[in-house]
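Reading a protein record of the kind used here takes only a little practice. The record below shows the convention in full.

——
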Amino acid sequence: MKHNWQIKKLGEVCEVLDKRRKPITKRHRASGEYPYYGATGILDYVSGFIFDEKLVLIGEDGAKWGSGDWTAFIAEGEYWVNNHAHVIRPNRDLILDTWIAYFFYFNDITKYTSGLTVPKLNQESLRNIEIPLPPLAEQKRIVKILDEAFEKIEKAKANTEKNLQNSRELFETCLDEILCDPKFEIKQLGEVCRKVEYGTSAKSKQKGSVAVLRMGNLQKGHINWDKLVYTDDAAEIKKYLLKYDDVLFNRTNSLELVGKTAIYKGEYPAIFAGYLIRIHRDEELLDANYLNYFLNSSVAMCYGRTVVTSSVHQANINGEKLKSYPIPLPSLSEQKAIVKKLDALAGETKKLEEIYTKKLASLEELKKSILQQAFAGEL
Protein backbone atom coordinates (compact mmCIF):
# COMPACT_ATOMS: atom_id res chain seq x y z
CA MET A 1 0.00 0.00 0.00
CA LYS A 2 1.29 3.48 -0.86
CA HIS A 3 2.72 5.68 1.87
CA ASN A 4 0.06 8.40 1.41
CA TRP A 5 -2.80 5.94 1.93
CA GLN A 6 -4.50 5.68 5.29
CA ILE A 7 -6.48 2.92 6.99
CA LYS A 8 -9.78 4.10 8.41
CA LYS A 9 -12.69 2.38 10.06
CA LEU A 10 -15.87 2.64 8.03
CA GLY A 11 -17.61 4.40 10.92
CA GLU A 12 -15.00 7.17 10.79
CA VAL A 13 -15.76 8.07 7.17
CA CYS A 14 -19.49 7.27 6.88
CA GLU A 15 -22.71 8.16 8.66
CA VAL A 16 -25.02 5.22 9.40
CA LEU A 17 -28.69 5.99 8.72
CA ASP A 18 -30.21 2.71 9.89
CA LYS A 19 -32.72 4.43 12.19
CA ARG A 20 -34.57 5.72 9.12
CA ARG A 21 -35.24 2.22 7.71
CA LYS A 22 -38.78 0.83 7.75
CA PRO A 23 -39.66 -2.75 6.85
CA ILE A 24 -43.01 -3.52 5.21
CA THR A 25 -44.34 -7.08 5.13
CA LYS A 26 -45.25 -8.31 1.69
CA ARG A 27 -48.99 -8.33 2.38
CA HIS A 28 -48.87 -4.72 3.57
CA ARG A 29 -46.92 -3.34 0.60
CA ALA A 30 -48.84 -1.11 -1.78
CA SER A 31 -47.55 -1.62 -5.30
CA GLY A 32 -45.97 1.44 -6.87
CA GLU A 33 -43.02 2.94 -8.74
CA TYR A 34 -40.41 3.22 -5.96
CA PRO A 35 -37.76 0.49 -5.47
CA TYR A 36 -38.01 -1.45 -2.20
CA TYR A 37 -34.51 -2.59 -1.20
CA GLY A 38 -33.42 -5.49 0.99
CA ALA A 39 -30.12 -7.17 1.79
CA THR A 40 -29.30 -8.15 -1.80
CA GLY A 41 -30.95 -5.43 -3.89
CA ILE A 42 -34.41 -4.51 -5.11
CA LEU A 43 -37.11 -6.84 -3.77
CA ASP A 44 -40.23 -5.05 -4.96
CA TYR A 45 -41.68 -1.70 -6.02
CA VAL A 46 -43.88 0.22 -3.58
CA SER A 47 -46.04 3.35 -3.54
CA GLY A 48 -43.85 5.45 -1.23
CA PHE A 49 -40.23 6.25 -0.40
CA ILE A 50 -38.18 7.13 2.67
CA PHE A 51 -34.85 8.05 1.01
CA ASP A 52 -34.30 10.46 -1.84
CA GLU A 53 -30.52 10.69 -2.13
CA LYS A 54 -27.56 8.65 -3.30
CA LEU A 55 -26.52 6.26 -0.51
CA VAL A 56 -24.65 2.98 -0.09
CA LEU A 57 -26.60 -0.08 1.08
CA ILE A 58 -24.76 -2.99 2.72
CA GLY A 59 -26.36 -6.35 3.52
CA GLU A 60 -27.02 -6.82 7.23
CA ASP A 61 -28.62 -10.29 7.25
CA GLY A 62 -29.73 -12.57 4.45
CA ALA A 63 -26.83 -11.28 2.34
CA LYS A 64 -23.61 -12.73 0.95
CA TRP A 65 -20.34 -11.37 2.30
CA GLY A 66 -17.71 -13.36 0.40
CA SER A 67 -15.14 -12.05 -2.05
CA GLY A 68 -16.87 -11.62 -5.40
CA ASP A 69 -20.28 -10.93 -3.84
CA TRP A 70 -21.96 -7.56 -4.27
CA THR A 71 -22.38 -7.05 -0.51
CA ALA A 72 -22.57 -3.27 -0.98
CA PHE A 73 -24.52 -1.50 -3.71
CA ILE A 74 -25.46 2.08 -4.51
CA ALA A 75 -29.06 3.32 -4.42
CA GLU A 76 -30.10 6.57 -6.04
CA GLY A 77 -33.29 8.57 -6.55
CA GLU A 78 -36.34 7.90 -4.39
CA TYR A 79 -36.61 4.48 -2.73
CA TRP A 80 -37.49 2.47 0.38
CA VAL A 81 -35.11 0.28 2.44
CA ASN A 82 -36.13 -2.48 4.85
CA ASN A 83 -34.18 -3.46 7.96
CA HIS A 84 -32.04 -6.13 6.26
CA ALA A 85 -29.66 -3.63 4.65
CA HIS A 86 -27.50 -1.04 6.39
CA VAL A 87 -27.83 2.46 4.96
CA ILE A 88 -24.69 4.60 4.96
CA ARG A 89 -23.90 8.09 3.74
CA PRO A 90 -20.19 8.44 2.91
CA ASN A 91 -18.31 11.61 3.79
CA ARG A 92 -17.68 12.39 0.15
CA ASP A 93 -14.85 14.76 0.99
CA LEU A 94 -12.98 11.63 2.10
CA ILE A 95 -14.38 8.58 0.35
CA LEU A 96 -16.35 7.68 -2.79
CA ASP A 97 -19.50 5.57 -2.80
CA THR A 98 -18.03 3.38 -5.55
CA TRP A 99 -14.77 2.93 -3.62
CA ILE A 100 -16.81 1.41 -0.79
CA ALA A 101 -18.80 -0.81 -3.18
CA TYR A 102 -15.65 -2.13 -4.88
CA PHE A 103 -13.97 -2.68 -1.48
CA PHE A 104 -16.84 -4.86 -0.27
CA TYR A 105 -16.95 -6.75 -3.58
CA PHE A 106 -13.22 -7.54 -3.36
CA ASN A 107 -12.99 -8.48 0.31
CA ASP A 108 -14.36 -11.40 2.30
CA ILE A 109 -16.42 -9.74 5.04
CA THR A 110 -17.60 -12.96 6.70
CA LYS A 111 -15.05 -12.53 9.51
CA TYR A 112 -17.06 -9.51 10.66
CA THR A 113 -20.37 -11.40 10.76
CA SER A 114 -21.83 -13.17 13.79
CA GLY A 115 -24.43 -15.90 14.33
CA LEU A 116 -24.32 -19.47 13.05
CA THR A 117 -27.95 -20.12 12.14
CA VAL A 118 -28.65 -16.67 10.72
CA PRO A 119 -25.34 -14.84 10.09
CA LYS A 120 -25.52 -11.09 10.52
CA LEU A 121 -23.28 -8.10 9.94
CA ASN A 122 -24.33 -5.97 12.88
CA GLN A 123 -23.90 -2.21 13.01
CA GLU A 124 -20.99 -2.24 15.45
CA SER A 125 -19.04 -4.68 13.28
CA LEU A 126 -19.89 -2.63 10.19
CA ARG A 127 -18.49 0.53 11.76
CA ASN A 128 -15.26 -1.28 12.69
CA ILE A 129 -14.47 -2.63 9.21
CA GLU A 130 -11.10 -1.22 8.19
CA ILE A 131 -10.90 0.20 4.69
CA PRO A 132 -7.83 1.56 2.83
CA LEU A 133 -8.21 5.26 2.08
CA PRO A 134 -6.13 6.88 -0.65
CA PRO A 135 -6.51 10.62 -1.33
CA LEU A 136 -9.83 11.42 -3.03
CA ALA A 137 -8.20 12.21 -6.37
CA GLU A 138 -6.45 8.82 -6.28
CA GLN A 139 -9.74 7.08 -5.50
CA LYS A 140 -11.38 8.76 -8.50
CA ARG A 141 -8.53 7.71 -10.79
CA ILE A 142 -8.61 4.08 -9.60
CA VAL A 143 -12.42 3.86 -9.70
CA LYS A 144 -12.38 5.13 -13.28
CA ILE A 145 -9.96 2.34 -14.24
CA LEU A 146 -12.09 -0.23 -12.40
CA ASP A 147 -15.32 0.98 -14.02
CA GLU A 148 -13.83 0.73 -17.50
CA ALA A 149 -12.24 -2.67 -16.82
CA PHE A 150 -15.41 -4.13 -15.26
CA GLU A 151 -17.52 -2.85 -18.16
CA LYS A 152 -15.27 -4.64 -20.67
CA ILE A 153 -15.20 -7.81 -18.55
CA GLU A 154 -19.00 -7.83 -18.20
CA LYS A 155 -19.37 -7.50 -21.97
CA ALA A 156 -16.96 -10.40 -22.46
CA LYS A 157 -18.90 -12.45 -19.89
CA ALA A 158 -22.22 -11.69 -21.59
CA ASN A 159 -20.82 -12.81 -24.96
CA THR A 160 -19.35 -15.97 -23.42
CA GLU A 161 -22.59 -16.81 -21.60
CA LYS A 162 -24.48 -16.30 -24.86
CA ASN A 163 -22.07 -18.65 -26.66
CA LEU A 164 -22.53 -21.18 -23.87
CA GLN A 165 -26.31 -20.94 -24.18
CA ASN A 166 -26.10 -21.20 -27.98
CA SER A 167 -24.04 -24.40 -27.77
CA ARG A 168 -26.65 -26.00 -25.50
CA GLU A 169 -29.52 -24.82 -27.67
CA LEU A 170 -27.81 -26.19 -30.78
CA PHE A 171 -27.78 -29.68 -29.26
CA GLU A 172 -31.41 -29.38 -28.15
CA THR A 173 -32.46 -28.15 -31.60
CA CYS A 174 -30.70 -31.04 -33.33
CA LEU A 175 -32.27 -33.51 -30.90
CA ASP A 176 -35.76 -32.13 -31.55
CA GLU A 177 -35.25 -32.16 -35.32
CA ILE A 178 -34.17 -35.80 -35.24
CA LEU A 179 -37.09 -36.87 -33.05
CA CYS A 180 -39.64 -34.98 -35.16
CA ASP A 181 -38.76 -36.77 -38.40
CA PRO A 182 -42.22 -37.35 -39.97
CA LYS A 183 -41.28 -40.78 -41.28
CA PHE A 184 -41.06 -42.22 -37.74
CA GLU A 185 -44.07 -44.13 -36.45
CA ILE A 186 -45.57 -42.72 -33.23
CA LYS A 187 -46.31 -45.14 -30.41
CA GLN A 188 -47.38 -44.63 -26.83
CA LEU A 189 -44.57 -45.42 -24.41
CA GLY A 190 -46.75 -48.03 -22.74
CA GLU A 191 -46.87 -49.98 -26.02
CA VAL A 192 -43.11 -50.54 -26.01
CA CYS A 193 -42.64 -51.06 -22.26
CA ARG A 194 -43.54 -54.12 -20.24
CA LYS A 195 -44.28 -52.02 -17.13
CA VAL A 196 -43.32 -48.97 -15.11
CA GLU A 197 -42.27 -49.42 -11.49
CA TYR A 198 -42.20 -47.04 -8.51
CA GLY A 199 -39.15 -47.19 -6.25
CA THR A 200 -38.75 -48.04 -2.59
CA SER A 201 -40.46 -46.13 0.18
CA ALA A 202 -38.24 -47.67 2.87
CA LYS A 203 -36.25 -45.31 5.05
CA SER A 204 -32.61 -44.84 4.01
CA LYS A 205 -29.59 -43.78 6.05
CA GLN A 206 -26.30 -41.95 5.71
CA LYS A 207 -24.14 -45.08 5.51
CA GLY A 208 -24.70 -48.52 4.06
CA SER A 209 -23.74 -50.97 1.35
CA VAL A 210 -26.07 -49.87 -1.49
CA ALA A 211 -26.90 -46.34 -2.64
CA VAL A 212 -30.53 -45.17 -2.84
CA LEU A 213 -30.93 -42.80 -5.78
CA ARG A 214 -33.31 -39.89 -5.29
CA MET A 215 -34.73 -37.03 -7.39
CA GLY A 216 -31.64 -34.85 -7.01
CA ASN A 217 -29.39 -37.57 -8.39
CA LEU A 218 -31.01 -37.37 -11.84
CA GLN A 219 -29.22 -34.62 -13.76
CA LYS A 220 -28.85 -33.93 -17.50
CA GLY A 221 -29.63 -37.48 -18.55
CA HIS A 222 -27.03 -38.99 -16.22
CA ILE A 223 -26.84 -39.94 -12.57
CA ASN A 224 -25.02 -37.63 -10.19
CA TRP A 225 -23.41 -39.67 -7.43
CA ASP A 226 -23.10 -36.83 -4.92
CA LYS A 227 -25.17 -36.49 -1.73
CA LEU A 228 -26.15 -40.14 -1.54
CA VAL A 229 -28.13 -42.02 1.07
CA TYR A 230 -27.88 -45.79 1.56
CA THR A 231 -29.62 -48.98 2.62
CA ASP A 232 -28.69 -52.43 3.89
CA ASP A 233 -32.22 -53.84 3.63
CA ALA A 234 -31.72 -57.14 1.77
CA ALA A 235 -35.36 -57.43 0.62
CA GLU A 236 -35.40 -53.87 -0.75
CA ILE A 237 -32.06 -54.37 -2.48
CA LYS A 238 -33.27 -57.57 -4.13
CA LYS A 239 -36.49 -55.94 -5.36
CA TYR A 240 -35.17 -52.57 -6.52
CA LEU A 241 -31.54 -53.23 -7.48
CA LEU A 242 -30.80 -51.37 -10.71
CA LYS A 243 -29.54 -53.14 -13.82
CA TYR A 244 -27.30 -51.75 -16.53
CA ASP A 245 -29.21 -49.40 -18.88
CA ASP A 246 -32.19 -49.00 -16.55
CA VAL A 247 -33.91 -45.69 -17.29
CA LEU A 248 -35.23 -43.73 -14.30
CA PHE A 249 -37.93 -41.07 -14.54
CA ASN A 250 -38.51 -38.36 -11.94
CA ARG A 251 -42.27 -38.36 -11.38
CA THR A 252 -42.64 -35.48 -8.92
CA ASN A 253 -41.01 -32.13 -8.16
CA SER A 254 -41.38 -28.58 -9.40
CA LEU A 255 -42.90 -28.15 -12.87
CA GLU A 256 -39.38 -27.44 -14.24
CA LEU A 257 -37.87 -30.63 -12.81
CA VAL A 258 -40.65 -33.21 -13.01
CA GLY A 259 -39.98 -35.55 -15.94
CA LYS A 260 -36.20 -35.38 -15.73
CA THR A 261 -34.71 -38.72 -16.69
CA ALA A 262 -31.36 -40.48 -16.28
CA ILE A 263 -29.82 -43.74 -17.35
CA TYR A 264 -28.00 -46.13 -15.01
CA LYS A 265 -24.66 -47.36 -16.34
CA GLY A 266 -23.68 -49.65 -13.49
CA GLU A 267 -21.35 -47.17 -11.82
CA TYR A 268 -22.11 -48.37 -8.27
CA PRO A 269 -24.66 -50.79 -6.76
CA ALA A 270 -27.87 -48.81 -6.31
CA ILE A 271 -31.63 -48.97 -5.85
CA PHE A 272 -34.10 -46.12 -6.41
CA ALA A 273 -36.49 -44.19 -4.18
CA GLY A 274 -40.27 -43.94 -4.47
CA TYR A 275 -40.37 -40.60 -6.28
CA LEU A 276 -38.62 -42.25 -9.22
CA ILE A 277 -40.03 -44.66 -11.81
CA ARG A 278 -38.03 -47.45 -13.45
CA ILE A 279 -39.15 -48.07 -17.03
CA HIS A 280 -39.07 -51.74 -18.02
CA ARG A 281 -38.77 -51.38 -21.80
CA ASP A 282 -39.18 -54.04 -24.47
CA GLU A 283 -35.51 -54.42 -25.38
CA GLU A 284 -36.34 -55.66 -28.89
CA LEU A 285 -38.24 -52.45 -29.67
CA LEU A 286 -36.68 -49.68 -27.62
CA ASP A 287 -33.04 -48.75 -27.03
CA ALA A 288 -32.31 -47.45 -23.51
CA ASN A 289 -30.12 -44.56 -24.63
CA TYR A 290 -32.65 -43.50 -27.27
CA LEU A 291 -35.37 -43.53 -24.60
CA ASN A 292 -33.18 -41.45 -22.28
CA TYR A 293 -32.51 -38.85 -24.99
CA PHE A 294 -36.21 -38.74 -25.88
CA LEU A 295 -37.48 -38.26 -22.33
CA ASN A 296 -35.02 -35.39 -21.75
CA SER A 297 -35.99 -33.67 -25.00
CA SER A 298 -38.28 -30.64 -25.22
CA VAL A 299 -40.63 -32.84 -27.28
CA ALA A 300 -41.23 -35.10 -24.28
CA MET A 301 -41.08 -32.32 -21.69
CA CYS A 302 -43.72 -30.28 -23.52
CA TYR A 303 -46.04 -33.28 -23.63
CA GLY A 304 -45.34 -33.94 -19.95
CA ARG A 305 -46.59 -30.47 -19.05
CA THR A 306 -49.94 -31.29 -20.65
CA VAL A 307 -50.52 -34.36 -18.46
CA VAL A 308 -48.92 -33.17 -15.22
CA THR A 309 -51.04 -32.97 -12.08
CA SER A 310 -50.14 -29.91 -9.99
CA SER A 311 -50.75 -29.20 -6.33
CA VAL A 312 -49.77 -26.24 -4.19
CA HIS A 313 -46.39 -27.77 -3.42
CA GLN A 314 -45.37 -29.90 -6.42
CA ALA A 315 -46.16 -31.33 -9.83
CA ASN A 316 -46.69 -35.04 -10.49
CA ILE A 317 -46.72 -37.44 -13.42
CA ASN A 318 -47.84 -40.93 -12.40
CA GLY A 319 -47.03 -44.19 -14.11
CA GLU A 320 -50.20 -44.30 -16.20
CA LYS A 321 -49.56 -40.82 -17.58
CA LEU A 322 -45.95 -41.73 -18.31
CA LYS A 323 -47.16 -44.69 -20.39
CA SER A 324 -49.30 -42.28 -22.44
CA TYR A 325 -46.24 -40.39 -23.74
CA PRO A 326 -46.19 -40.44 -27.58
CA ILE A 327 -42.70 -41.53 -28.65
CA PRO A 328 -41.30 -41.45 -32.22
CA LEU A 329 -40.23 -45.04 -32.89
CA PRO A 330 -37.77 -45.79 -35.70
CA SER A 331 -36.38 -49.31 -35.95
CA LEU A 332 -33.99 -50.49 -33.24
CA SER A 333 -31.02 -50.17 -35.62
CA GLU A 334 -32.06 -46.61 -36.51
CA GLN A 335 -32.40 -45.80 -32.82
CA LYS A 336 -28.83 -46.98 -32.21
CA ALA A 337 -27.58 -44.89 -35.17
CA ILE A 338 -29.38 -41.85 -33.78
CA VAL A 339 -27.83 -42.45 -30.36
CA LYS A 340 -24.36 -42.66 -31.92
CA LYS A 341 -24.92 -39.34 -33.69
CA LEU A 342 -26.30 -37.67 -30.56
CA ASP A 343 -23.44 -39.01 -28.41
CA ALA A 344 -20.92 -37.45 -30.80
CA LEU A 345 -22.80 -34.14 -30.80
CA ALA A 346 -23.12 -34.22 -27.01
CA GLY A 347 -19.37 -34.77 -26.75
CA GLU A 348 -18.65 -31.72 -28.92
CA THR A 349 -21.18 -29.68 -26.95
CA LYS A 350 -19.51 -30.69 -23.68
CA LYS A 351 -16.12 -29.58 -25.00
CA LEU A 352 -17.55 -26.19 -25.95
CA GLU A 353 -19.24 -25.87 -22.56
CA GLU A 354 -15.93 -26.60 -20.83
CA ILE A 355 -14.16 -23.95 -22.92
CA TYR A 356 -16.78 -21.30 -22.22
CA THR A 357 -17.03 -22.22 -18.53
CA LYS A 358 -13.26 -21.90 -18.14
CA LYS A 359 -13.37 -18.54 -19.89
CA LEU A 360 -16.05 -17.31 -17.49
CA ALA A 361 -13.93 -18.45 -14.53
CA SER A 362 -10.89 -16.69 -16.03
CA LEU A 363 -12.86 -13.46 -16.39
CA GLU A 364 -13.86 -13.63 -12.72
CA GLU A 365 -10.23 -14.21 -11.76
CA LEU A 366 -9.26 -11.21 -13.88
CA LYS A 367 -11.66 -9.03 -11.91
CA LYS A 368 -10.12 -10.22 -8.64
CA SER A 369 -6.61 -9.61 -9.99
CA ILE A 370 -7.47 -6.04 -11.01
CA LEU A 371 -9.10 -5.38 -7.63
CA GLN A 372 -6.06 -6.84 -5.85
CA GLN A 373 -3.87 -4.33 -7.67
CA ALA A 374 -6.34 -1.52 -6.98
CA PHE A 375 -6.45 -1.99 -3.21
CA ALA A 376 -2.70 -2.63 -3.00
CA GLY A 377 -2.05 0.73 -4.67
CA GLU A 378 -0.55 -0.86 -7.77
CA LEU A 379 -2.85 0.55 -10.45
Summary: The chain has three domains: 6-134, 136-180+331-379, 185-329. The first strand starts at residue 6 and ends at 9. The chain has a mean pLDDT of 92. The radius of gyration is 28 Å.
